[in-house]
Write a structure and sequence with these properties.
Shape: globular
Oligomer: single chain
CATH class: Alpha Beta
CATH architecture: Alpha-Beta Barrel
Number of domains: 1
Number of strands: 8
Strand order of the largest sheet: 1-2-3-4-5-6-7-8
Order of helices and strands: EHHEHEHEHEHEHEHE
CATH superfamily: Aldolase class I
CATH topology: TIM Barrel
Length: 183
């Protein structure tokens, strides 16, 4: 199962040297297959994104994504962009730039729309209880979505330990994405 590390300001800070050090250690410790720089409130997002990509290129095979901004992702040489569930219209624009695209989804209909639009991956959430993210969908629901889709799906939401990862093992999901699992 693929691992997708997502950063957050709370755990990675927005101070470049500290950010780089924490990211380096997290990547070394967990060896994820994918990583996302996500910080919705950093006024210096582009500068920090550049630091993120610089650290990521030291890890062979790691696919580094930026959040929301497909033009910046292309400009800085990221592997791809992770779009929000409000950005379906950006899928063709990001694909035209040669980027891999992940989009956040929360329903089977959204998964199917994303799939039809040619995304490479989707996150489906929240699978487990997550503060402020609504009712958990559960592993059985995830399994049904996986069975009815062709796109690679990352489970997201409430994955904080091996317990949740183990529960996902038999769902057929492509991988899991998390912030808190990768502290």
């Amino acid at each position: 199962m693929k691992k997708y590390l997502i950063t957050s300001r709370e755990h990675y800070t927005d101070t470049p040297a500290v950010f780089r050090s924490i990211l380096q250690e997290s990547l070394k410790k967990h060896m994820p297959d994918f990583a996302l720089y996500r910080d919705k409130h950093n006024p210096h997002y582009a500068t920090q994104a550049d630091h993120f990509l610089d650290v990521c290129k030291n890890f062979y095979g790691l696919k580094a994504f930026l959040h929301q901004d497909y033009e910046l992702a292309e400009k800085l040489g990221a592997c791809g962009v992770h779009l929000t569930s409000q950005q379906f219209d950006a899928i063709p624009k990001a694909k035209d730039l040669g980027l891999e695209v992940i989009i956040s989804t929360h329903t089977l209909d959204e998964v199917h729309i994303a799939e039809a639009m040619g995304v490479d991956y989707v996150t489906y959430s929240p699978v487990f209880d997550t503060p402020g993210k609504g009712e958990a969908k559960g592993v059985e629901n995830l399994r049904e979505v996986v069975d009815m889709s062709q796109v690679d799906i990352f489970a997201l939401g409430g994955i904080i330990s091996k317990k949740e990862v183990n529960a996902l093992e038999e769902s057929g999901v492509y991988g899991f994405a998390s912030i808190r699992y990768f502290y």
